[in-house]
C-alpha cells in the first residue's frame, strides 16, 4: 500500500512554478491513509528530513538531507509550491551533497504574520536570514525554479561572496524575448490562482505539457489545500505583477549582469508560462553561463515532469565548480 501511494504522489506534477501533491495538509483518504505520514515517507525516500527553525517573525519549515560536511545546495521552489516539489530531484543529490529545501514564507508549512511583505526583494532577504540562522550561508550553491529562480538570481547578485553557483530552471524574470501572455500582460497571472473547484485542472493544462493522471481523492484534497492557501498565493501574484511594472528588462539585466558565478540554465521547450526564448536571453545577460539545457517535450515543471533529464547536467556542472 505504501508503495502504491508513493507512486501516486510521484506522478503528480502540478502548477505554475508551483504546486505539488506533496504539500497536502494532514488529511486521510483511501483507507485512512495519513497524508503527512506519506509526505514524511516521500522525504525519507529522497534522503531528506523535515525540520523547523524560527527566524524573526517567520517559522520556517524545511527539508535537509545529505552530510553537513559536503557542499551545500539550497533549492528554492516557485509560486504556490513547496519544498516537496524538489523531492524527485533531491533523491539524486543527497548521496553527494548537503541539500536544504525551505518552504518559502507563507507557502507549504512555513508560517508568517498576516501582514507579511511578499515582495521578491523581501523574500530574498528573509531567505538570507534563514541561511545565516541555519549556518549554511557560506559557499552556497543556489538553485531556483520559476519564481524561485528570480529569488535565487537576486540572492546570488546580493550575496556574491558567499554564493558559489546558480542553477535556474524555467526562471521568472523581466524579459524582452519571452513571448507568453503571463509576461506580456502580467495581470493574467491572476488566472493561475486556484480559488474554486475546477481551477486545478485548468492550471495543470497550462503548467505541464502532458497533464498527469491524479487519483480523484488526491486531486480533490490538493485542490482544497490550494483554495485554503489562495489568500497568500494571491499576495505573491500581486507582488510579481508589481515586479513586472517596477522593473524593466534593462533593470533586470543589471542584476543579472552583476553575477560572476558559474550559472546553469535549464528550460522545458513546451513551457507555456515563460517560454523557452528566455533561456537564451538569460545566457546573454549572465557572464559565466553555460549553454542552456533545453528539455524536449517538457513544460514549465521540469523538476517534476522529467527530473531525470536534469540530474546529469546539474551533477556535471557542480563537479566543475566545487
Automatic annotation (TrEMBL):
Q: Known SUPFAM superfamilies for this protein?
A: alpha/beta-Hydrolases
PANTHER family (UniProt xref):
HYDROLASE, PUTATIVE (AFU_ORTHOLOGUE AFUA_2G14860)-RELATED, MONOACYLGLYCEROL LIPASE
Report any Pfam family annotated for this entry. Abhydrolase_1
Q: Could you give a GO molecular-function term held by this entry? A: hydrolase activity
Entry keyword annotation includes Hydrolase: yes
- Highest taxon above the source species: Bacteria
InterPro entries to which the protein is assigned, alphabetical: AB_hydrolase_1, AB_hydrolase_fold, AB_hydrolase_sf
Protein name from the UniProt record: Alpha/beta hydrolase
Chain ranges of the AB hydrolase-1 domain: 71-305
Q: Where is the signal peptide?
A: 1-30
Q: Which UniProt keywords apply?
A: Hydrolase, Signal
Presence of the UniProt keyword Hydrolase in the record: yes
